[in-house]
Structure formats: structure tokens, C-alpha cells
Amino acid sequence: MSVYVNEKTKVIVQGITGHQGSFHTGEMIAYGTKVVAGISPTKAGTKFMDKVPIVASVRDSLVFEPDATMISVPAPFVKDAAFEAIDGGLKIIYILTEHVPFHDSLEIVLNAKRKGAVVFGPNGPGITSVGRCKIGIMPNKIFKKGNVAIASRSGTLTYEIVDAVTKSGRGESTVIGLGGDPVVGLNYIDVLEQFEKDPDTEQIVLVGEIGGSNEELAAQYIKKHVSKKVVAYITGRSAPPGKRMGHAGAIIEKGVGTAESKIKAFNEAGVKVADYPDDVPGLLE
Amino acid sequence: MNLYEYMGKQIFRSYGIPVPGGYVVENVSEVKPFEKPVVVKSQILLGGRGKSGGIKFAKSQQELTQGVNELLGSKIRDLKVTKVLIEDMIKIKKEMYVSIALDRTARAPVFIASTEGGVEIESVSHDKIFTRHIDPILGYSDFIGREAVTFMKLDPDIGKQFMQILPALYRIFNEEDCELVEINPLVITEEGKLIAADSKVIIDSDSLYRHKDFSVTDPEKTPLELEAQSKGYAFIELDGNIGVIANGAGLTMATLDALTLHKGKPRNFLDLGGTDNSDIVANAFDLVLKAKPTAILVNIFGGVTKCDTVANGIVMAKNKFSIKQPIVVRLSGVRDEEGRKILKDNGVDSYPTMMEAIERVVKVAGGN
Q1: What pTM value is reported for the model?
Q2: Which CATH superfamily is domain B21-88 in?
Q3: Judgement on whether residues A182 and A265 belong to the same structural domain of the protein
């Protein structure tokens, strides 16, 4: 069992010929991900790394029976790429691209929902089912198979915490980057529901940050619906209000979205919150 | 990006939302001859301008010239007034409120309206506020407006005018990629007309590539932050003394948090992003040095950004800018050992963990 993706997941890459897209596709293949095709209208008919066929459209890739797509195209083209994937019937859509206008994200997320597809991102680092499948840009060598599931709104900070968990002698089941934008496809509740059901997962780490109220909602959900151990780390506690801390979603507005509020909500739900990323493994079993 | 009132009103006008007649001046010589009573409104991105003396009323040429002269060049809560909007005075019978904003948790626009306007909507009692999500795929349709009109118990004639404003407001929200479009107050005049007496429009900055017609310099950004923005760095000035360079917004925030918990005071937030270019690293030092820190902390977890690339950038910066301040580096992840060797060979301290680097930089930075 695993959540969202596994060793059988067939992945296509929209934007495989770009600098980032090609580097990370190579890393994904090295990790063991089944990359079945890449999409590029101008390079159709060629092969990526001499093995992955490149085709002109998502429609043309359907002969390879893909389940998932990784979208790594420039922001102005993301909506079209995501619609193409939804139209093609793909069920897992991971959008790496940052700076996607949120009006586009709204349309992508809602249309996907109507067609039964799941969107991750925009502006996320990927999803890894450890030892089975990696979609995205997370470094391959930080993972070790284990029972800790991790969900995060950040990129690099996620690696930091995965690395700390691995170095502590524990390992991970699934690591999910939800994306750092104000509008993303999934929130913590969606993934908590999956982690709770997943037999490979025994404990859960949520990596949150200032902005919005998803951490508070997750805390309420955990209280009622999650029996597994959950710990958290929240970043942005020293951030001044009104300043966007890099991620478009990480901003305290009118007192909403403060680290204090999130930490308090987690504590009330019995979720211990680490002061430093390195302290996360110590809170786990 | 926040738009000035006059820019928001230009948009309102072009979408058919009634606004008072008016024009903008940057110099008193541009003031047109007085014809009828006007309001002179300083164009600054702050709420509560009236209370801060940023709005003047003029019933004569002399009062108009005087008002413009007083406001232009003045400072309102630290913001310099460079433009004023001169607008026909309207006779207010009642002030209402209407807006459309993004509800990020619901992943949908939320439409808010109230018969109580002219004050902050947060201060209005909940039973007087109409709130409703709009399905982004279905979009706005008149049934939504009718629900609002019924809730607000508007007179039929006002309700009819209100129903004409709403689709325009929703079109603005969508077509101009708004985070917020707000009319507060939406005035009922003594003549029984609805008119937008103010505007607040916030455009999603990620959408600016398709809205090249808007250009507003964020008044809250410092000159150094503007310089950083033009060079493509996510950079925020803070009031401490330790310069910070890290990769990834989350890790950079975590670095500031950890410094603060260790009684260190960060001077800035600088996210290198996912780069693998030594020049970008070196130029980040240029920005941080301009903020005159007493020490610089570099915190890198290598992935896309490789540790040896960062190390080379640090050495380049150290030589190019003859950096005197202590530099403390944490390198972990892809090519960390190679990176730490490069640093060691060039006399720069480096550590494998974030905590060691933080403890070290707080110690060498002093100033606490």
C-alpha cells in the first residue's frame, strides 16, 4: 500500500525538454520512477536519454497508459498544460512551476476535482513514495524507507526535515510537498486522511508555515479523525506581519495566519510542535 | 500589488461601474479652473486617510489650490504624497460596502456586501454582512446578486443599480487577476444614485506578466528591497544585525526563526531559490553587505542548488567585495563535502548542521 503513487505509477513529464525538466526527469528515472513519456510538440519523435519516448501531446502519450504527470512548464503555460492532462484523463497532476497566477490555479483545481483528478502544487517540490516512485525535484539520497509520512508547504525545508528523520535512524513512507502558493490542490486534511488509512504509515510530520488557516483546520481534523501520532514544525514565527516571506502564501494579514495561532491549535490537538527542524525526530517514536 | 484609488477607479469606469468625475495631478500647475465643489484626495496606499488629514474639501478656487498645495509633497504616516485625485463632491445619503476577495481555504472567490459601509468591514456586526462563495467555474450569475439584494433589503431602484455593479465587479476580479476588489464606501447619493466613492484593488503579482499596464512601486518596500526585487531576489530587510542567505523560502524562514530563538537578530531574509549559479550567490552578498550586517550566515541544504556551487560563490564574493565581517556557512546535502573543502581552503568557517552554524554566528556577530 502507498498513497497517491506507487511502483506501478506511470508518469509523463510536460516540459521534459526544459533545463529543470530534463535534469529532474533523469533523477526520477534514477530513483526508479516509471517515466513512460515526455511531451514536447517540437521534439516529438525523439527520445529522452535514449529511452523515454517524446510525443507531441498528452493525447499522443495515452498509448503508454500514464497515471500521472509532472508539469514543469513556464507559469503562463501551466493552466493549458494542466487542462491538457485533465482532459487526457490523468488522475495525478503534480505542478512544480512557481509564480502561477492564482486565478489559473483555481480553475485547474476545480476542473481537476470535477474529473476526479488530484492536483499537487503549484509551487511544490514533488511527491515521493519512498523506494517506489518519486515525482518532482526532491534529492534522491535523503530518503530511507520507514514509517514516517511527511506533508509540507515548503521545498528545501522539507528536505531538511526528511534528512533529519533519516539521520535519526528512522525512515519515511511518503513525503508530499503541497506547494507554497495561496491556492494549491490539496491541503493537510486531504493528505491526513490518506496517511491515516495507509498501513505503511505509523506516524506523521506536518511542516507548516505562516499564512492562511490550513494548519488550524488540520489541527481540528486531527483531534477528531487521526489516531496516528502527529508532530509538527511551523516556520515563520519571527516573520513581521504584512511581509511576504518568499512564498506567495506565507504572509500574515490582519493577524490571520500567525505562527502562534498555528502552534496553539496544534498543541490543543495534542500535536507536539518542534522549535527547530532538527528537533522533529526527537518528538517521534 | 495594491493599486492607487485613482487606478482602481479607472478600472471601475472602464467596466461601467459609476465613479465620481475627477482627475489626477502631480503638480499644482495641473489644477483645472474651479467649477464646482470638489474633494482633494491624496493618493497613498493606506486606509484611514481622512483621519490622517489626507483628504481636503474645496468650495472655491482658493481652497482647491490651497488643498492641493498642502497635500502634494506632504507626508502621511511616513508616506510621501506625490499624486492627488481631484473629484466632484457627491452628496452622500448612505454608505454601503461590497467586495470580492480570494478565500484561499475554500479555493473560491468570496463575495461580501453590507448596507454598513464607510467603515472597516471587520467592525460591522456579522448579521449585517452578506457573505457568499462564488463557484469559479460557474462564475457570477444574477441569482447571487438577488440573494444579496434580499438580504440587504435594498429599495427596488437601488437594488437594480446594485445588480448592475456586481457582474462588472466579478469581471474585474477575474479579468484583472485580482486578490481583492473592494468598493468602500459604495455611496447612495441624495439623488438616489449608486456610485463608487473609493476603490481598493489588489492585483496578484504573479499575474503581472499579462497586465503590463499596471505599475505601482510598493511604498512599503525599502530602496534595498526594490533593488533586490529588480535583481530577482526574494529579499526583506529586518532590523537586526546578522545577514542571512539561505535557499528556499521555508528554510530561509526557519533560519530566521532559529536565529531569533538563539537571541540572534536577523538583518534580512534572502532566499536564493533553486539556483546552481555561483554568480547569483556572489551577488546576493552584494545586497546583504549593503544592509551592513555585523556577520553573515549562509544556510544551504543542497539539492538543485549544489553545495560546491554555493561555496564557489561565497569565495568569489569574499574576494570581490573584500568582506571584513565573519561569514559562517552551513552546507549539507548535494556535494556538501566538496563545498566545505572549497571553503576550508579559502579560510571560511563551515558546519554540517544548521544548529552549529547558528550558535557560531550568534557568537561572532556580537551586538546583543
Answers
A1: 0.92
A2: ATP-grasp fold, A domain (3.30.1490.20)
A3: yes
